[in-house]
Amino acid sequence: LAGGIILGVALWLRHDSQTTNILYLQLGDKQAPNTFYVGIYILIAVGAVMMFVGFLGCYGAIQESQCLLGTFFTCLVILFACEVAAGIWGFVNKDQIAKDVKQFYDQAFQQALMAESETNNGKAVVKTFHETLDCCGPDNAIGVITPLWRDDLCPKKDSFLKNLIESSSCHKKIDELFSGKLYLIGIAAIVVAVIMIFEMILSMVLCCGIRNSSVY
């Protein structure tokens, strides 16, 4: 059940419309940074393997097989080690993920402002960011005044003044998007880790109990 829940959360994060709209973008020959998906794929793999390993442990307990319970314990230790390694990697790279996406957005934004922008897809990339995140422009001064003179790049509001006032920085929106998603991944990883620790303890207790029990 835990493996199924983790797998479901990971698949939802993988196919979330906001992240897929942004991370599938391509600016010329450059693909949008998709480091974020590395953590998602690890979570999907852990969830799927947990479901299989859970079945193995359940069958081993029913059959009172020390071999199956020992294999179950070993698989859990390997999964736990992989999860800890993935958690450390995620913690180290949590700021870098948003930073890479912001740099990709800034490059597209600069191309969209250039006179020859019609020859590339910078404008289309920027508009996708703006429409998906409901924002307009980066944090710098150019981004602040963008709604004044390039309203074709920004989501349309009811009025010009409303467009100027309500346009949020896309850098801020990108930070909010990925911090929220990474927060969910972190919670899922902690839940999995706690469940794994209890599973390892209980499997060893059961294995020792079977070993010490009388032979019928």
TrEMBL record:
Any one GO CC term of the record: basolateral plasma membrane
Protein name: Tetraspanin
A GO biological process held by the record: adaptive immune response
PROSITE patterns per UniProt: TM4_1
Keywords on record: Adaptive immunity, Cell membrane, Disulfide bond, Immunity, Lipid-binding, Membrane, Transmembrane, Transmembrane helix
The organism's taxonomic lineage, starting at the top: Eukaryota, Metazoa, Chordata, Craniata, Vertebrata
Membrane topology reported for the UniProt record: Multi-pass membrane protein
TM annotation in the entry: 36-62, 68-92, 182-206
Gene Ontology molecular function: any one: lipid binding
Disulfide bonds: C135-C170, C136-C154
Family named by the database record: Belongs to the tetraspanin (TM4SF) family.
Superkingdom classification of source: Eukaryota
A Pfam family recorded for this sequence: Tetraspanin
Location in or out of the cell: Basolateral cell membrane; Membrane
